[in-house]
Design a protein that fits this description.
single chain, alpha/beta, FAD/NAD(P)-binding domain, six-stranded mixed β-sheet, 19 strands, globular, binds flavin-adenine dinucleotide
Length: 399
């Protein structure tokens, strides 16, 4: 039986493992983190096209009950002026809309389901190198161990090691000039419908919140930051530093419940710099390939990173199922995917930059936004959200 080494068990990895198993290929996952309990506290919006990809491998049910519907977003200026409302895409044919969920829960249910379907997972296995010989590939891990398989799929995220192994000249992630921080709070009443994101283009900082069905409020903020901070600088920031900074950016200038949310936010407060990957020239070499963020990360502003990773995770194994050899499968996969994912990365970058507008840009943005929202509502975004995968459709048909 063909064996695939799947590097990384975030979002793409476990779903690729499920789809590989469905295609008759044994999947072995290797995750660098020592345990499954990563990313606690962070929330994620899974757009309907990502849920459609899960449905293609009969896994839609694993996210049922993990999240809650998040069908729309409302936008405001910092002065409280309503700028417009935007749908989060059309629901699936069965009525399932975009969902919001704790990221750690999503990781957990996807991994559990992949293992239940016969894939294996090893934690604490950080890939450091990989070599190919003929039709075989050998992965080398930081613990000194190795693993052998017929192909290797890099699902190892934006800082992908597999990307560098495939092409040592591959570009690094690009800094997008905003930071990210967020979490969930209790005991802060907000005047907003459950599940509808309230997005505020504040005078000095973009911030957002959404009422969760259990009465809590999930929030995030994107403090602008022109130059890229170092990891050490972010790690050195205390909860008090974040609270002081976020209150300074929002409390005096903006209307809304953000100061109450920030004061109530439990620690630890952890912030990230934002990155994307506009174009990775080489996605595959020999019998190694990258998918998900490793190949095309978008800034979180697109709300599509996880959904794109899930689409890839299902479509690549479908090509492996039907193509005469691995090289053809990788080539056809790239031909099908590259335009779509790079268009979405561009969309995410534009959205992130609008959050970091200067004083003049802000005036133009706030004036133009209601018109933009009306135009966006009329625009056909089916290409984005209504992407559909039929697992049984032959992968090699010409489009
Ligand atoms: C702050 C923030 C908010 C976001 N919000 C959203 C959102 O609301 N909606 C959305 O769709 N997307 C969102 N995204 C993007 C989304 O999280 C990613 O697009 C998605 O997780 C990509 O999945 P992936 O499997 O490719 O990578 P990841 O989920 O990053 O998984 C990569 C995995 O590989 C492992 N790994 C890395 N290196 C190695 C190695 N050398 N060896 C072994 N294992 C390794 C990592 O530990 C990790 O488990 C957000 C991102 C950020 C940073």
């Amino acid at each position: 039986m063909t064996t695939a080494l799947v590097i990384g068990a975030g979002i793409a990895g476990p779903v690729a493992a499920m789809a590989l198993q469905k295609a008759g290929i044994h999947a072995r996952m290797f995750e660098g983190h020592p345990t499954g309990a990563d990313e606690v506290g962070s929330w994620l919006t899974l757009q309907a096209n990502g849920i459609d990809a899960l449905a293609a491998v009969d896994a839609q049910h694993v996210v049922t009950g993990v999240g809650f519907p998040q069908p729309s977003m409302r936008f405001f200026s910092g002065t409280g002026k309503a700028l417009g409302r935007m749908s989060n895409g059309v629901p699936l044919a069965d009525g399932t809309p975009t969902q919001m969920m704790p990221r750690a829960e999503l990781y957990r249910v996807l991994r559990d389901e992949a293992v239940a379907r016969g894939a294996s997972i090893s934690y604490g296995r950080q890939l450091v190198d990989a070599t190919t010989t003929g039709t075989r590939v050998t992965a080398a891990f930081a613990d000194g161990g190795t693993a052998e398989g017929d192909l290797l799929i890099g699902c190892d995220g934006i800082r992908s090691r597999v990307r560098q192994i495939i092409d040592p000249a591959a570009p690094a992630a690009r800094y997008v000039p905003v930071l990210n921080i967020g979490g969930v709070v209790s005991g802060v009443p907000v005047n907003a419908p459950v599940g509808e994101f309230q997005m505020v283009f504040g005078k000095r900082c973009f911030w957002a919140y959404v009422a969760v069905p259990d009465g809590r409020v999930a929030w995030f903020a994107n403090p602008p930051r022109a130059d890229e901070p170092t990891g050490a600088e972010l790690a050195a920031m205390t909860d008090a530093d974040w609270r002081t900074w976020l209150l300074d950016l929002t409390a005096a200038d903006d209307r809304g419940p953000f100061p109450e949310i920030i004061r109530a936010a439990p620690g630890p407060l952890v912030g990230w710099a934002t990155y994307d990957m506009p174009t990775v020239p080489t996605w595959h070499r020999d019998n190694m390939v990258i998918i998900g963020d490793a190949a095309h990360a978008t800034s979180p502003a697109a709300g599509q990173g996880a959904a794109m990773a899930l689409e890839d995770a299902v479509l690549l194994p479908r090509f492996l199922r039907d193509a005469p050899d691995v090289a053809t499968a990788f080539r056809l996969f790239e031909e099908l995917r590259r335009d779509r994912v790079e268009k979405i990365v561009q969309y995410g970058a534009r959205s992130s930059h609008s959050k970091a507008a200067g004083p003049v840009g802000r005036i133009i943005r706030d004036a133009a936004m209601p018109l933009f929202m009306r135009m966006a509502a009329k625009q056909n975004t089916r290409w984005l959200h209504s992407h559909h995968i039929d697992w049984d459709e032959p992968a090699l048909i010409r489009r």
